[in-house]
Specification:
Low-confidence stretches of chain B: 270-275
Keywords (chain B): Cell membrane, Membrane, Transmembrane, Transmembrane helix, Transport
Helix content of chain B: over 70%
Number of strands of chain A: 20
Radius of gyration of chain B: 23 Å
Mean pLDDT of chain B: 87
CATH architecture of chain B: Orthogonal Bundle
Distance between the termini of chain A: 38 Å
Membrane topology (chain B): Multi-pass membrane protein
Largest sheet of chain A: 6 strands, mixed
Strand order of the largest sheet of chain A: 6-7-8-3-9-10
Mean pLDDT of chain A: 93
CATH superfamily of chain B: MetI-like
Strand content of chain A: 25-35%
CATH architecture of the largest domain in chain A: 3-Layer(aba) Sandwich
Domain ABC transmembrane type-1 (chain B): 73-260
Strand content of chain B: under 5%
Number of strands of chain B: 0
Largest sheet of chain B: none
CATH class of the largest domain in chain A: Alpha Beta
Order of helices and strands of chain A: EEEHEEEHHHEHEHEEHHEEHEEEEEEEE
Radius of gyration of chain A: 24 Å
Organism (chain B): Bradyrhizobium betae
Number of helices of chain B: 14
Transmembrane segments (chain B): 12-35, 72-96, 108-129, 135-158, 190-210, 239-260
Oligomer: heterodimer
Chain lengths: 357, 275
Amino acid sequence: MASISIRNLTKRYGNFTVIPDLNLEIADHEFVVFVGPSGCGKSTLLRIIAGLEPISGGDLYIGDKRVNGVQAAQRDIAMVFQDYALYPHMRVYDNMSFALELRGTPKAEIDARVKRAAALLHIEPYLDRKPKELSGGQRQRVAMGRAIVRNPKAFLFDEPLSNLDAKLRGQVRAEIKALSQQLKTTMVFVTHDQIEAMTMADRIVVLQSGAIQQYDTPETVYERPANQFVAGFIGSPAMNFFAVEWHDDCAILSQGGTAVPVDGETASSLRRAGNALLGIRPEHFTVATNAADGIAIEVKLVEPLGSDTLIHFDLAGISAIARIDPSLRPKVGDRLALRPQPGKTHLFDATNGQVLR
Amino acid sequence: MNDAANTDRWIRWLNTVQLVLAGIIIMAPTVWMVLSSFKPSFEVTAYPPTLVFTPTLENYAELTKTTPFLSYALNSLIVTVGSTSLGLLFGIPAAFAVSWTRITWPAILTLAARMAPGTLFLLPWYVMFRQIGMIGSYTALILSHAVITLPIVIWVLLPSFDAIPRSVFEAAQVDGCSVTRILWRIAMPLVASGVAVSAILAFVFSWNYFLFALVLSNGDTKTLIAAAFNFIGEGSTQWGALMAAATLIALPPLVLAALVQRWLVSGLTLGAVKG
């Protein structure tokens, strides 16, 4: 078990810089999730920690040891791959015992550790099977078992749930989280799925173009996004953004001039900035009973989800979404008045996207 | 529906005709060789060729009487097994290294060497081996035949190694394997059928290779195929004995190929489709 420290790390492929200058501290026992769109450098960063990619500049520490030039084999890190990467010619038992065997662990201890991990992951009946005789979910568990038996300094997960169907993904996600609480080991998990990030992480690293946009707890990343990118990336459906101005002591939409009811904090920030981007999550709209208290919209599309209903509408030239109570039973063409919930709006600098407080 | 069934039937029929024609073209010389080896010597060159004849073993008797056939066969075996082993010893790690590093020029270089006419190597080798007193040695023959076996091993195994997902190797690295260990513990078991196929192909090509053995061997190390050349004399070729020798020479590769034909096809197409 160990902390991971990344200092001024750069990664280049020829003239192409994937990670320009990255600093990150992952505490011992912490479950950190790297999240970001495709090509943001999250998998590269994970592979650098694993020792599968060389570092172009900067330093990487695992525990107190600088591991820049240390081979993957010597880092004492376990990794679960997206395609599980099980050894096809070995039985499940041998897949799990292989790393211990390489380290010269006594046979009795190997056996005990494999059986303990198999029990933990409910894969005991499959120990004599080859990977091709297992389902996707079972293979996923074996891949985790292979990592667990080693008792490594840290676990790395590279999008391990992306090959599973939706139901199984949810189940394994919960299992990994439970496992992390049981094992109390440093875990780094890469995903492009923000639900995985939100539900599993102690802290989330939101990456874009190889740079950390925000590194904080899931609650903070959701409630207080550092910039427009994070605000738009975390949350599903994504946050709506409207260009707004401060005009005649009132917040108005830049296009159309409709007044937007905002809380005091947002109003004072907008007053200082003059104009900005107003961010409102779909779930933070309320349907106003009195039309004068909200923004008038016309429902363009209705998506009933059971627990909620999503309504699509156009506002100030923007296609926006609101999540509303399904008992309202909205229909296409209905005219509603939406009101942002007080304290739930976000204001971003119109030029650089940074949050305005 | 009926049209589709008719078209299918026609395609199947055309395929069969094509295969039969190809089989006849490929097999005719072999059948002619085998039949001729059992004909009395005066009938071998008869024109038109006789299809009905009384089979005789006189050509085989002549062959064993006039030549140390078993000794030549042993020479062939030593050279073939030696060069196949050498090809595997260097070809397996070479193919793995090319697949691992994605640096393909060494493999292309070996292929170019294989494509080049044998005579290109013959003179330099003859001079080199003569200067170090190795003309007529098994070592010279085995080393020269490695030019045949090495590219075969590399090029048959390359797609097999390429077909193994990269992440399997990376998982082994993270598990604590060195590159050498990854080759022996992870990659080798996964390409075992490819190794067998490359070994068989290397064996067959080396066994059948004529030119190097003709020039670099001596009376003690002459291989079967070079010895068979002795039956072709100026004006008086012993066709019957030559056919008997050719039949016996062709036997081991044919038997080998027949025994493992299913494996051979799957091994050769390995890596073509990832599954």
